[in-house]
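Now for my pick.
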Amino acid sequence: MTSIDNDPLFTSLCNEKTLQSQKEGFFNEFYQSVAENFTGKSARWLTEVYQKLSTDKERLRLIYEDPVVAYEVQGTLEHVEPVFRAKDAKFSWQRREQALKLLGENKLQQALIMACQAVMRAPDQGVDRYIDKGLTLALALWTRAEVFIRMLDGKRALQDLQLASKCGLPVKQNADYYARVAKCYALSCENGRAEVATKLFHQLSGHNDYALTRLKEDLEDLRVLKQETPSVEVERTLPKLAGEGQSADIVGASTKIKLAGSKEDARGRYVVAAADLGPGEVILTEQAYAACLYTKYLGTHCSACFTRLVAPVACPDCCGVAFCSVACRDKACATYHRFECQYLDLMIGSGMSILCHVALRMVTQAGTPQKVITEGHMLRDTFCAHTEHRDPEDHFKRTLMTAFLLRCLQKAEFFGRRTTEAPEPTEQELEVGAVLLSALQSLQFNAHEVYETRITGEHRFDTAKVQYIGVGIYRGASMFNHECYPGVTRSFLGTSMILHTSRPIPAGAVVPENYGLHFLRQPKPVRQRNLRSRYWFKCDCRACTEDWPQMDKLPAKPRLRCPTGDCGNALAYHSKPSQRTVKCSKCKKQINLEANMKMLEASDQLCTTGAEMMADERVDEAIELLKKGITLFAQAAVPPHKPAHIAEESLRSCFADKGNANRY
């Protein structure tokens, strides 16, 4: 891959998209009001003053101090105030009543939706004593627990009951509480604990034998119903890395890959195979350094771990985000969310892109300014920013966005209580701002979209669709260079990225990733234009130099590999037996291609059988057959070849099915 001049207009559009995703957001007005100050007499200010400064910190300082723009910048930033959706006890009470009504009508799914809304909008204990005597949250959780019991989900019901107790629900003399706890344990097949809870219920009910008999009947009914209802939840874990242990050079990587090149090389640093790799080997499992959900998924997925929400747990102060558990909530509220909480809606309203949010998250999750500055050195060394090639107007926009985000951090007391309300930053704040500005540049080239597999019908593959739910930054994964014919397939578990090899890669060869432009789906001109303008390089991979056709135009038969040692030559496929003995134009030997053709036929058959296993939803068997078919193809022929590429795509679907996969 070599750097080239870009298509200026398309590059500008691509750059803008990585900074601002909504034209209607107020940031665009902010920029226009500031930009008016360096037109006319000050038209050269950007190139002769701003661009001449050598560091991000100096450029950031300039916009607060230079009279050409400082008045407009500081004047606007002074108006930054908290904007967030606060709790509403009355709304929560209304939703709780609706949930109870729907529960009485046995409309369980609708009741759950209402109960979840009641939980999300309820203020903490004692905040609003005029409604529910300050127990709105506890009562919302109590109601949702009953919904879960009716849905035979004892685990989540018990979690809600325990949380309701912590939120002030009276439980010491509450017989109904222990009746529900007993039901939760019965549904979870914890009969010993169910018996203890049943005894407590009997005591607190005044030894009401009739009530005890009714409860025991309910418990037995629940056990029977639970046994008759198949469980659809699957416990998913990260796969084990191939090889021995973890790489010392690449975060989260196998020892079967290693770094090559250097930052000074045209290709930069990149990943190569340290040993021969077969298809389906796990070469990376990496937790995101920082990750954020797209705005539309803030109410459906956990803000911390990206798990799809069933029983959301709310932030104590805002209704803008949700969490899958108390653990995720407490971790978030102890770190990044306490600084983002009251300003998230304001930032969304600015129209900033999700990359801006990820850049901010890289700062807020650190917790302290000093840690941000320390880690900033590592981040600059890891992620390329191409600052020297960036258009001055685009860089200035990013500096202005940095100033806005820095102001939000000031107001959220990320730097502690300030002695002044003026937005002009201190030296420490400028250092943090420089880290933010660097991230706003490097994320354009290094961020990855996180996806889930959305299953909308009975069959897990026929109705599966990739849905991008957020964006993450990965230190290890960012080291992989792009090729339009990748050597790895990417899947996710939570915010962790998993890379499996998708084809054999010999030791010493590049292990390429794909930045979203695959030769099977986009023609060469489209790929080249997008890669030049979005990632600023010209791709010279094999699929581009040989101009491989897309999926629907692939030839019926591939070229066959010369079987002589390390020759590596590709020879034309001949269907007639009399033409299968040929002279190789590279190694000059007479060779017979009969064995290659038999291997190719066997490869196609293995891939076909693998597809049949997928149709039967026998995923593990499908994976093994597809791996064997892809391996055999690599021994017999060279790409492109339609059955082999379909097998590689099928392998990706199988691995994705073991990651973030949810039924809708």
Notes: The radius of gyration is 30 Å. The CA atoms of residues 315 and 322 lie 7 Å apart. The mean pLDDT is 94. The longest strand covers residues 464-473.
